[in-house]
Write a structure and sequence with these properties.
mainly alpha
Length: 43
């Protein structure tokens, strides 16, 4: 019984962590791409 509850909480925690980190990962990719293109132009 307790193991099932712990598994559910772990799954919820993993889902929340994924949802929270996704925007930051997208922002990092955005800024990383912008800085790399600016560097590629020789600015």
């Amino acid at each position: 019984m307790f193991r099932a509850v712990a598994d559910v909480l772990r799954q919820i925690g993993g889902a929340v962590a994924t949802v929270v980190t996704l925007p930051f990962r997208a922002l990092a990719r955005l800024f990383g791409g912008a800085s790399s293109t600016a560097r590629g132009r020789g600015v």
